[in-house]
Design a protein that fits this description.
Blueprint: H1 2-31, H2 46-50, H3 60-66, H4 77-90, H5 94-123, H6 129-145, H7 150-154, H8 159-184, H9 188-209, H10 216-227, E1 232-235, E2 238-241, H11 247-253, H12 255-279, H13 290-309, H14 329-348, H15 353-366, H16 388-404, H17 414-440, H18 444-454, H19 459-471, H20 475-488, H21 493-505, H22 509-522, H23 527-539, H24 543-556, H25 561-574, H26 577-590, H27 596-607, H28 612-625, H29 630-645
Antiparallel strand pairs: 1-2
């Protein structure tokens, strides 16, 4: 009876603590990002949100299209669907998108809180119950405040990180919960299959948010391996032996679940590789060979640890200084230190399972980003969003160990107070850095000006700072940043494409043509660059070449309204008005909700064909087709009124 009474009191205390902790956690995770509410879309958000017409509808046909894999584009349908929901309520007001990101971050932090408590209980069975509570409190609050998460929360196009993180941790929590409930239930098989079904569904949603979640089955296997050496459990003040099946037995008993999980992972691994190959996400080997590229992976791994532990100034873009030649003393030190960490973590399995679990959780969840398969970005804050869980787990345990430390020279509460003071110091420091980093993400200029200042050799920072000046019409400034970008990364076809556009506007046709042709050579499947080439020829009054480019593109896709529209503009400039009208009508029929073809048709009939009635007809049709384009609609109304008054 005494033991039961103690357990009951412990549960009651934990319930009260849990409610208060969750309330404060929600306040912290949400409050730290309130100053992001005024942030605008950045030029990193344009393609995914601002100019993405796929998010403009929630009808079943569009939802089906969102979940259909299209070659050459990313496959993250849950993210796209979430944007469509945001657009339904908020249109293109970034405030609503920020609110959604923050809500998912709060939910993720809550999942982290519950998982930390269960992991601490299962992997630290000799620790008292209140120790597990403190680990969950310390770890979850540090997770919510850590500034490395700002990119994943404040960058709107990084919604995939928040969605993947929430569903990943939800699946892990359901797995832990199901494992416990299966042991308690009178019908363990029914309970087990119910929870395993929920785990698989959450895992599927995580991979549909971002395919990097494919590593989830490996995390479950890691957890089972970590459990296999447990021998006892503390009940009150008594340590009671407890049998625990080995992980091989776990595989035998849950083979269907494991096979199905691995099957999902293989499917999405295939999709991920297809997407990366089709979209150019897989880059040439850094250093020229697979071996050199593999050596750079050691740099990436250790710099990701540095992001969590010792980075103060976070950035949207980083550069990693690599030895030249790559196989130098610095590289050998990095390799040696990495193997030392692996060795110590494997050794810790016998005595301190939390270190083994935390280190390999970090490694497994970071594996898709280690550049073993070369990707465009070596280092990014968002890549450690899930992996940072293990760091917060270990940090929570450290604060708890310090809290429980006793020394005869000091009073009983000395280390308790010191532990809490140190925890609050770290928490406040993280919180202030998070608030400051939110301000850096205010708009495209503040974001990339900061990145270029911190990492002037970054290709990404220079390329996107160039785009900012390009959009502002400050072409000469844009050229400097874009030239720097391709100096750092010669195969950056997007920067070469942008340079071609700017050189054309600056009346430097030879340079413009060279950059556009190089961009097409680097990325032959990108039709946007070819459209820019046609615009260049049109600007140079080489109309026949512009027509040839557009006709070539139309052979591949005759249902592209934009191509017909642009061809109509070229014919208009050539004085071939019948051909121009024909192409503009095709564009109008293919995209009846776009105002531009109606306006151009009206202009041709008014100024070139001298048919006022047809001009008025197309102006009126444009007003009907796009009533939300207020400024353009007002202009057309004035045109019609002016034509009426001169009859």
């Amino acid at each position: 009876m005494g033991i039961r009474g103690n357990i009951s009191n412990d549960n009651s205390h934990w319930s009260r603590t849990k409610v208060l902790a969750l309330f404060l956690l929600v306040l912290l995770a949400g409050g730290l990002y309130l100053n992001s509410f005024g942030n605008l879309f950045t030029n990193w958000d344009d393609q995914m949100i601002y100019s993405n017409y796929q998010i403009r509808s929630l009808d079943w046909e569009n939802i089906h299209h969102i979940f259909t894999y299209v070659r050459g584009s990313t496959y993250q349908p849950v993210r796209v669907l979430s944007y469509a929901v945001d657009y339904y309520f908020w249109g293109l007001n970034p405030l609503g998108y920020h609110i959604t990101n923050i809500v998912f971050y709060i939910l993720t932090s809550i999942m982290v809180f519950f998982i930390l408590h269960r992991l601490s209980t299962h992997l630290r069975k000799n620790a008292p119950p209140d120790s597990h509570e403190r680990v969950a409190l310390f770890g979850a609050f540090l997770f919510a405040a850590h500034p490395v998460h700002v990119e994943a929360v404040t960058w709107l196009a990084a919604r995939k990180e928040g969605l993947q993180g929430f569903f990943f941790f939800l699946a892990f929590y359901l797995y832990l919960k199901g494992r416990e409930e299966g042991k308690k239930s009178l019908r363990p098989n029914r309970r087990k299959f119910f929870y395993l079904a929920l785990v698989l569904f959450s895992f599927l949603l995580a991979t549909l948010s971002k395919p990097a979640a494919i590593v989830f089955p490996a995390v479950l296997l890691l957890y089972e391996i970590s459990l296999k050496t447990n021998k006892s459990i503390r009940v009150g003040t008594t340590v009671v032996p407890t049998p625990d099946h080995g992980w091989m037995d776990f595989l035998k008993r849950h083979w269907f679940f494991i096979v199905f999980s691995v099957f999902i992972s293989f499917i999405f691994t295939y999709i991920l590789m297809r997407v990366m190959l089709d979209a150019g996400g897989i880059k040439p080997y850094r250093g020229g060979t697979f071996f050199n590229n593999l050596l750079i992976s050691f740099y990436v791994f250790l710099y990701n640890i540095k992001l969590l532990i010792s980075t103060i100034n976070y950035s949207a873009a980083y550069t990693i200084p690599v030895s030249n030649p790559i196989l130098g003393v610095r590289t050998l030190i990095f390799i040696g230190f990495t193997f030392l960490l692996f060795g110590l973590s494997l050794w810790s399995l016998k005595k301190t399972k939390v270190i083994f679990f935390s280190f390999f959780f970090f490694f497994i969840t970071l594996l898709p980003y280690l550049n073993i398969v070369p990707i465009s970005t070596l280092l990014a804050d968002r890549y450690v969003f899930i992996a940072s869980f293990s760091y917060c787990f270990l940090l929570g345990i450290c604060f708890d160990q310090f809290y429980r430390f006793r020394n005869k020279r000091f009073s009983g509460n000395f280390f308790k107070l010191l532990s809490i003071a140190l925890f609050l110091f770290v928490l406040v420091g993280y919180s202030l850095m998070t608030i400051r980093q939110n301000q850096i993400w205010e708009n495209s200029y503040t974001l990339w000006a900061d990145a270029v200042e911190k990492y002037p050799e970054s290709n990404t920072a220079n390329a996107l700072m160039g785009v900012v000046y390009m959009e502002l019409g400050m072409d000469e400034k844009a050229v400097g940043y874009l030239e720097k970008a391709i100096q750092v990364l010669s195969y950056d076809y997007q920067s070469r494409n942008n340079l071609g556009i700017i050189y054309g506007r600056l009346e430097q046709p030879e340079k413009a043509l060279k950059e556009l042709m190089t961009a097409i050579w680097l990325k032959p499947e990108d039709d946007t660059i070819k459209i820019n080439l046609s615009v260049f020829y049109q600007r140079q009054k080489e109309y026949q070449k512009a027509v040839e480019v557009l006709r070539y593109l139309l052979l591949k896709n005759n249902h592209d309204a934009n191509l017909h529209f642009r061809l109509g503009l070229v014919y208009k400039e050539m004085g071939q008005y019948d051909a121009a009208i024909s192409e503009l009508i095709k564009a109008m029929e293919l995209a009846p909700q776009i105002i531009n073809p109606y306006e151009e048709l009206g202009n041709i009939y008014l100024s070139k064909v001298k048919d006022i009635e047809k001009a008025k007809f197309y102006y009126s049709k444009g007003i009907e087709a796009a009533p939300k384009a207020k400024a353009r609609v007002d202009d057309l109304r004035w045109m019609i009124q002016d034509l009426e008054s001169h009859r």
